[in-house]
Amino acid sequence: RGMRVAVVGAGVSGLAATKCCLDEGLEPTCFEQSQDIGGVWRYTEEIEAGRPSLYPSVISNTSKEMSAFSDFPFPEDFPVFLPNALLLDYLRRYAERFSLQEHIKLGTTVVSIRQHPDFATTGQWNVVTETGGKQTSEVFDAVLVCSGNFSEPSLPLHSFPGIGRFRGQYFHSRQYKHPDVFRGKRVLVVGMGNSGVDIAVEASRVAAKVTISTTRGAWLLSRVFEHGYPWDMVLNTRLRSLIKTNLPGPLAWWLLNYKLNQRFNHENYGLQPEGRCRVREPVLNDDLPSYILTGRITIRPGVKEFRDSSVLFHNCPEEEPIDIVVFCTGYTVSFPFLEESVVRVENNHASLYKYVFPTHLQKPTLAVIGLIKPLGSILPVAEMQARWVSRVFKGRGANVSPPESQNAAQTGHILFGLTFDEVLKIEWLLYMDTLASFIGAKPSVLGLLCTDPWLALTIFFGPCSSYQYRLRGPGRWQGARQAILTQWDRVLKPTRTRVPAGSSSSFPSLLAVVGFLLLLAAVVFGF
């Protein structure tokens, strides 16, 4: 019989994991506790325990070309940034296209995953699941944990003195669905992640007043970036990555500062992030600067204490009256079905080799997929992790020799500081390249320069879309080259709706000229 793999969860990561297992000839069974696939992208009006909760207005932060699974581009008529219903539609098409449905057991909760008594030799796991009140225990050869980290809200009320005496209403952003609750109210949003800013912007259209309290500030990016192109297609390129990783730290920091302050000066808007040691994950929002400028939203420092019907901020003498507080304080990482010893989570850090494999298991037969916050889309990252892991499970995988000694694990922590509230310092592209090189799927720009120069230039200067990782190696896809060369057409198709779409944007042709010169320079200076 084939190798049996248990996949926990049928969201983005679980679907990718199931598909990659099938690609490698493994036998996946995907357990999903709710009645449908889609994970965080499936909107429900009611809030279900243990499931992510979405508000109806959520739109993807990453563009469709940069969010696609590497062998399944989005339909060309889909908008460039996707409302949650369309992203769910894409996931359904993916499941259908690769016949994943028959491997998914809906309405099935994973209760516990424990090492089999002879784990040291077989690497097997005992998996207990529950369906309709009835428990079943099965043995699996390997386990893929794809349960995500948006189910368990983190609400550290003890960090907010006086919240006990506050007479207004307060709730975690997970409870938020519609802005009507804010009508005519004075609203305080605590925390400045993507949800916090989204909710503040929505609230400010109906509320009497909206204040965002942020201790650390944040960089703000707009989906509509330079020349109206999507932010991630401009920023996530091999050229930029090469420049960024080879510049000395202070210079890279100065460049980042300069770049992100071009649209507006963050300091003047009260947003400048504190301290340069950690580059926080930028927040994506198209409205905030103009809402600050028109007085709809005010930015304040961290909360010092709550009073009966008001709040005091650090370094602000006067108190501010408020009626309702939304805590956008993120989520706690937890794996209730695993023993603590398998994945150690301490103050929201998990000790995982390359964010995937627990560092101390005798056999690498359990992996965590999608537990990473890249500055870029999670879809291609989860898929790449699953491609690597399914090959490791099969015994073909290169390189899973996790650092054994405590010392090595420490350096791992510094390199891959797994903090979920601060951006993983890991650069999206470098991480993708690392995993791709483990399985032999990393594209060779120099190799292509001789055989297919146009493709090489597009890969180096254009956006690093995931199709690049299907040009070679296991899981090669015939359509990859075509998908790369037509990516801008799919971006322009849904917006060029008044005039017939001409040739692909002038962006690539300009690139070609500049590109060729720069690439020559790169080759000369030892690329």
How would a crystallographer describe the biggest sheet? 5 strands, parallel
Broad CATH class of one domain: Alpha Beta
Strands, total number? 22
Dominant shape: globular
Radius of gyration, in Å, reads 24 Å
Helical residue percent? 25-40%
Structural class: alpha/beta
CATH superfamily annotation of one domain: FAD/NAD(P)-binding domain
**How far is the first residue's CA from the last residue's CA?**
46 Å
* Mean pLDDT across every amino acid position: 89
SSE inventory with pairings:
Blueprint (H helix, E strand, L loop, with lengths): L3 E5 L3 H12 L3 E6 L31 H4 L16 H14 L6 E3 L1 E8 L3 H4 L2 E7 L2 E7 L1 E4 L23 E4 L13 E5 L3 H11 L4 E5 L6 E2 L9 H5 L2 H9 L2 H12 L22 E2 L3 H6 L3 E4 L2 E4 L3 E4 L6 E2 L2 E4 L17 E2 L2 E2 L1 E2 L3 E2 L7 E3 L9 H17 L11 H10 L12 H12 L5 H7 L1 H9 L18 H6 L1 H6 L13 H19 L3
Parallel strand pairs: 1-2, 1-7, 2-3, 7-22, 8-17, 9-10, 9-17, 10-13, 11-12
Antiparallel strand pairs: 4-5, 5-6, 14-15, 15-16, 18-19, 20-21
Task: Explain what this protein looks like in three dimensions.
GO terms for molecular function: flavin adenine dinucleotide binding; N,N-dimethylaniline monooxygenase activity; NADP binding; trimethylamine monooxygenase activity. This is Flavin-containing monooxygenase 1. With 527 residues, the protein is an alpha/beta fold. Among the domains are: 4-151 and 332-403, 3-Layer(bba) Sandwich (FAD/NAD(P)-binding domain), CATH 3.50.50.60; 155-222 and 263-329, 3-Layer(bba) Sandwich (FAD/NAD(P)-binding domain), CATH 3.50.50. Helix content is 31%, strand content 17%. The protein is built from 17 helices and 22 strands. It has helices spanning 12-23, 64-67, 84-97, 119-122, 194-204, 231-235, 238-246, 249-260, 288-293, 378-394, 406-415, 428-439, 445-451, 453-461, 480-485, 487-492, 506-524; strands at 4-8, 27-32, 104-106, 108-115, 125-131, 134-140, 142-145, 169-172, 186-190, 209-213, 220-221, 283-284, 297-300, 303-306, 310-313, 320-321, 324-327, 345-346, 349-350, 352-353, 357-358, 366-368. Helix 1 links the parallel strand 1 and strand 2 (27-32). The relative contact order is 0.14.
